[in-house]
Each structure stands twice: as structure tokens, then as C-alpha cells.
Design a protein that fits this description.
Strand order of the largest sheet: 1-2
Pfam families: ASL_C2, Lyase_1
Protein name: Argininosuccinate lyase
CATH superfamily of the largest domain: Fumarase/aspartase (Central domain)
CATH class of the largest domain: Mainly Alpha
Largest sheet: 2 strands, antiparallel
Oligomer: single chain
CATH architecture of the largest domain: Up-down Bundle
Helix content: 55-70%
EC number: 4.3.2.1
Distance between the termini: 62 Å
Order of helices and strands: HHHHHHHEEHEHEHHEHHEEEHHHHHHH
Number of helices: 20
Number of domains: 3
Shape: elongated
Subcellular location: Cytoplasm
Bound molecules: arginine
Structural class: mainly alpha
Strand content: 5-15%
Enzyme class: lyase
Length: 469
């Protein structure tokens, strides 16, 4: 009997500590579907090339069907001694079908096997993330549609700057998530390439048909250099970099939701389904989901740092370091997918089978507008008004600064100053200034492409509808 799973070379059994330290089965068993799919595609090609017999292929297929059923039923016995998902499945296959199981690994190494498995697994997850990113955008657009004419103060430096449409504000996030979706579609192309056939590092002496395996597994192309194929994890790093950007965008939105929900803003309310209470303060309703989403961005950015540091300094080709790619990648995928799902639902409500929405965040139009009327949000509009009357912009800026200073001292808004007072700053001011100083007037004026004027915002909503379907 061999002292170890893989070879008679070893005369001593592995130390228990080392076994636990090097084993990955308790996390990489998650790759089992991809591992079986990869093995079946490899076996099918081995048979087509005459490297194994049709009978061997049939045995392998029968064994794998049983293993799949065992795993699905929770009856498969994962063994720490067998180190990882690959050796666990292969050992079980050999127990079930004998020599055919031992022939499966012909022309293959765990090095090209694991790289293939991770890519296959990640490709499916990417497709799930893509759907969730689109759902997130739809949720934001659904709230935006109802709030084109809802006005809140736009901020810079978190100081009141200029009035903006709440829809416009939400659509800013739609743009961010749309770019994230573009990045995802782009990186998917590089994930979707086949390492199998690279074997341990140098390729193999068997007449493998790599293109055939690629077609069977739905890969767009075959990795063109065996050393690169088994060793680089840049595709996983790319996903994690993408995920970091998604989570940073979510985190900014979550931060705004937390702020808007605070009594001092009171711009929105969240349904009870997404709030938590306090064990001591009976009045509390806390936006925990948004806070956690903001917090979880930290772990995803951490995983990005972990993975790029993991890769740095590894000599070609495969090194065991790469086993450390899985937990950060798995956690990144879970975190980004869970976060997108829950945030989309909290914002846009639950989507029924017929596409209708229920729940979602409540917008407090009055509170937003009241806030927009404080803080001299239309000061720029007064300056622009004077420019239209012939004053150079820099002079207009100065005139309005004086007016704001006086208005602050009087405790009044610009729109509340009598016309005569305004005319004291510049004689060109006439009664039509009133319209320029309203929130709606301010919005309507900003009708450059991409601006906050309702006509522009509606056009953007139409564009997103067409894009998102
Ligand atoms: N569990 C290993 C990993 O995740 C599989 C590849 C092992 N290869 C090897 N030569 N030890 O990377």
C-alpha cells in the first residue's frame, strides 16, 4: 500500500499538520461541477483521439454520473487525506470503475485541471453577476422614473451646491454600474480560455485535441502557452478588481442612503424589511443593510490586494501558492453577488413574475425640496442671470457673493429678498429674476447633454430602458 495518495516514492506518511495545512478540499470542493465537466470533456477527447477506449469512456461517464448524484445528495465522502477536489473525485471514480478511472488523468495534470476548473466556475458566476448588475440598474431606473421632478440639493464637499433632480442623482449610479458591466463583459473573454492540454507545465506527448475540449466546454479559445496557462491567475485578479469597483460604487450609494435616512436629512425612508432595531433604544430603525454593504467593500478590496500579492514574485510555472487564490475569489464572488441582490431589492423593491415592483425606498420629496431651498443653491443661477444681462461672469460671481452674504445676515433665502434689494446689487435685475431663483427654473436651465434638466433626465431614462430591456 502506498504511504500517500499520489506516489510510492514517499516512504513516510505525511505529517498530520502538513496534511491539514496543504489540504484544500474543504473549500475547493465547491468546484466539483466544473471538475466533473472538465474531466468528461477531457475523457471524451481522449477517446476520440484513440488514447483511451470507447469502453473506458463509457465507464468514466457512468462513474461520473454516480459521483454527481452522490455529491448532489450530500452522500459523497470528502476526504482530507485526498487533499483536494480533484483527487477526491478521481479516487472515487477509480473505486467505482477501476482502470478506466486510472486512465482519466492521461495527458493531464492537476495544474491545468485546477486552472480549467476555476475558469469554468468563474465563467458561470460572471454570468450571474452580469444579471445582478443589470437588475441593480433597473432598480435605480425604476425609482428615477418617478422622481424626475423631485429636487434635492446637489452637493460638492457635502455643502449645498446646486439643485438637482433626484432621478439625475440616481442615474449617476446607473452610469457607474453600466461601466462595471462593460468591464465584466470584457474580462469574461479572458477568463473563457482553456488551460487543459498544458499538462503540468510543458504540454504533453499525447496527441490531444485541445480545440475539441475547448468547444465541448464552451471556451472561446485555447491558452497558447502552457507555462502561462497553468501559472497565471490574472483572470481571477481581473474579476476581483472589477468586483472592487462595483463594491466601491455600491459603497458610495450605501453611504448616501445612510446619510439620507438620518433624521437630519430625512430624504428617504427604507421599508422595515431592510431595517434593524436596537436592543436598548426603542425608537431606533437602523439602515444595517446599507452599512454592511459599505463595510463589505473593504473585504473585497482586501481580496484584490491579497490576490495581486499572491501572484507577485512567483517564478514560472505552477506553484502551490496558487491554491490560495480560491478563498478570496469565492468570497469576492459571493460578496458582490449577495450585495448587488440585496441592494437592488432594498432600493427598487421586490420584482414579481410579471415585472411589477413592491416595496423599495420611499422618497420624501418635501424634505428634499426644503433642503434644496436652504443653503443658497440657486446662487449660481443669479450669477448666470446677470451674465445674460451683460455682466461678465467674474463680476456677476462677485455681485452675488455680496447678495448671499447679506441674505445670510438677514436669515433669508435669495428668492425672499425684495426685488428692490436685489436691484441694489445690480440695476439690471428685473422681475423675471424670480423664475431664475426657483428650484424648477434652476433645473430647467441646465439642459446641456448630461445635465439635470428634466428634459435631459427623461432622455437618459429612455436610453437606459432601451439598453437594459
Ligand atoms: N489544489 C491545488 C490548487 O488549488 C491543485 C493543483 C495542485 N498541483 C500540484 N502540483 N500540487 O492549486
Amino acid at each position: 500500500k502506498k504511504a500517500q495518495a499520489w506516489s510510492a516514492l514517499f516512504s513516510e506518511p505525511m505529517s498530520e499538520l502538513v496534511k491539514r495545512y496543504t489540504s484544500s478540499v474543504f473549500f475547493d470542493k465547491r468546484l466539483w461541477r466544473a471538475d466533473i465537466a472538465g474531466s468528461l470533456a477531457h475523457a471524451e477527447m481522449l477517446a476520440a483521439q484513440g488514447i483511451i477506449s470507447a469502453a473506458d469512456l463509457a465507464d468514466i461517464e457512468r462513474g461520473m454520473a454516480q459521483i454527481r448524484a452522490e455529491i448532489e445528495a450530500g452522500q459523497f465522502e470528502w476526504k482530507l487525506d485526498l487533499e483536494d477536489v480533484h483527487l477526491n473525485i478521481e479516487a472515487r471514480l477509480t473505486t467505482l470503475v477501476g482502470d478506466a478511472g486510472k486512465r482519466l488523468h492521461t495527458g493531464r495534470s492537476r495544474n491545468d485541471q485546477v486552472a480549467t476548473d476555476v475558469r469554468l466556475w468563474l465563467r458561470d458566476e460572471i454570468d450571474a453577476t452580469a444579471v445582478l448588475l443589470a437588475d441593480m440598474q433597473r432598480a435605480l431606473v425604476s425609482v428615477a422614473e418617478k422622481n424626475v421632478d423631485t429636487i434635492l440639493p446637489g452637493f460638492t464637499h457635502l455643502q449645498v451646491a446646486q439643485p438637482v433632480s433626484f432621478a439625475h442623482h440616481l442615474l449617476a449610479y446607473v452610469e457607474m454600474f453600466a461601466r462595471d458591466a462593460e468591464r465584466l463583459a470584457d474580462l469574461r473573454k479572458r477568463v473563457n480560455r482553456l488551460p487543459l492540454g498544458s499538462a503540468a507545465l510543458a504540454g504533453t506527448s499525447y496527441p490531444l485535441d485541445r480545440e475539441r475540449v475547448a468547444r465541448t466546454l464552451g471556451f472561446e479559445a485555447v491558452c497558447q502557452n502552457s507555462l502561462d496557462a497553468v501559472s497565471d491567475r490574472d483572470f481571477a485578479i481581473e474579476y476581483t478588481a472589477f468586483a472592487s469597483l462595483v463594491m466601491i460604487h455600491v459603497s458610495r450609494l450605501a453611504e448616501e442612503i445612510v446619510v439620507w435616512m438620518s433624521q437630519n436629512f430625512g430624504f428617504i425612508n427604507l421599508s422595515d424589511r431592510y431595517c434593524t432595531g436596537s436592543s436598548i433604544m426603542p425608537q431606533k430603525r437602523n439602515p444595517d443593510v446599507a452599512e454592511l454593504a459599505r463595510g463589505k467593500s473593504g473585504r473585497v478590496v482586501g481580496h484584490l490586494m491579497g490576490l495581486i500579492t499572491l501572484m507577485k514574485g512567483q517564478p514560472l510555472a505552477y506553484n502551490k501558492d496558487n491554491q490560495e487564490d480560491k478563498e478570496p475569489l469565492f468570497d469576492t464572488v459571493d460578496t458582490v453577488n449577495d450585495t448587488l441582490r440585496i441592494m437592488a431589492e432594498m432600493i427598487g423593491g421586490e420584482v414579481a413574475a410579471d415585472g411589477s415592483r413592491s416595496g423599495g425606498l420611499t422618497v420624501r420629496k418635501d424634505a428634499m425640496e426644503r433642503a434644496a431651498l436652504r443653503g443658497y443653491a440657486t446662487a449660481t443661477d443669479l450669477a448666470d442671470y446677470l451674465v445674460k444681462k451683460g455682466l461678465p461672469f467674474r463680476d456677476a460671481h462677485e455681485v452675488v457673493a455680496h447678495a448671499v452674504k447679506d441674505a445670510i445676515a438677514l436669515g433669508k433665502d435669495l428668492a425672499e429678498l425684495p426685488l428692490e434689494t436685489l436691484q441694489g446689487y445690480d440695476a439690471r435685475i428685473t422681475a423675471d429674476v424670480a423664475e431664475a431663483l426657483t428650484l424648477a427654473g434652476s433645473l430647467n436651465a441646465r439642459s446641456t447633454l448630461g445635465g439635470t434638466a428634466p428634459v435631459q433626465v427623461r432622455a437618459q431614462i429612455e436610453r437606459h430602458h432601451a439598453r437594459l430591456g
